[in-house]
């Protein structure tokens, strides 16, 4: 029986691709580079902002990463202003979260986005109290970024749960690897930034085309009428 759902943020709970592209575009523009395409943005995200900037620079005119360190600083300043640009919940997510709360299932967020920006996104889109825990990147506290299992393991400890009681949901290979590394069940969501083929390769417990697929899956596993 599942007692907790651990959600990735970008591409899983919220469509933030326009905010991410806007932030990368303004960063690259500072060096006379870019803009980055939507499709490349979807491919470059998922492993934290440092890898996002590294991949963007390499693909858009700075293969030697000459501007890398300065670009990180620029991006962090730009992202403070752009992180909520056109960010919204995916269709069906509010209904899924309401169902989980009704069933007494913990709802948590675990993102590689900087922690404060994660909090900003969640508070901008969702009502207070929607989630029991919300965590972004916390490497300064000794919790490695996904796909390391640290964040998942910390949540499980905090909530006093067993691994078998948790379902990790995400839209990228990083998310599937996170679930595998933490030894919890995974659900790959197909409405986000990556495709079926990438997620299928990790053999998740569920491949969901819509949030209501997750609801029906949990109803089945938890024997809910």
UniProtKB/TrEMBL annotation:
Keywords: Hydrolase. The keyword Hydrolase applies. Coiled coil: none annotated. Signal peptide: none annotated. The keyword Hydrolase applies. It holds the Pfam family HAD_2. SUPFAM superfamilies: HAD-like (SSF56784). GO terms for molecular function: hydrolase activity. InterPro entries: HAD-like_hydrolase_sf, HAD-like_sf, HAD_2, HAD_sf, PGP-like_dom2. This is HAD family hydrolase. It comes from Enterocloster alcoholdehydrogenati. The lineage of its organism: Bacteria, Bacillati, Bacillota, Clostridia, Lachnospirales.
């Amino acid at each position: 029986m599942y007692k907790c759902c651990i959600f990735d943020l970008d591409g899983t709970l919220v469509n933030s691709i326009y905010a991410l592209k806007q932030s990368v575009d303004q960063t690259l523009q500072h060096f006379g580079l870019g803009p980055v395409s939507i499709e490349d943005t979807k491919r470059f995200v998922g492993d934290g902002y440092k890898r996002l900037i590294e991949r963007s620079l390499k693909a858009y005119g700075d293969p030697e990463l000459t501007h890398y360190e300065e670009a990180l600083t620029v991006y962090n300043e730009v992202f403070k202003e752009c992180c909520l640009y056109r960010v919204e919940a995916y269709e069906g997510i509010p209904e899924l979260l309401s169902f989980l709360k009704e069933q007494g299932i913990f709802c948590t967020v675990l993102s590689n986005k900087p922690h404060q920006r994660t909090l900003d996104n969640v508070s901008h889109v969702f009502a207070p109290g929607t989630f029991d825990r919300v965590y972004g990147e916390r490497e300064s506290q000794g919790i490695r970024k996904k796909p390391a299992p640290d964040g998942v393991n910390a949540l499980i400890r905090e909530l006093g749960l067993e691994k078998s009681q948790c379902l990790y949901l995400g839209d990228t290979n990083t998310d599937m690897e996170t679930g595998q590394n933490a030894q919890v069940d995974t659900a790959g969501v197909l409405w986000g930034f990556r495709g079926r083929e990438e997620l299928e390769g990790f053999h998740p417990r569920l491949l969901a085309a819509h949030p209501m697929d997750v609801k029906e899956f949990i109803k089945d596993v938890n024997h809910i009428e």
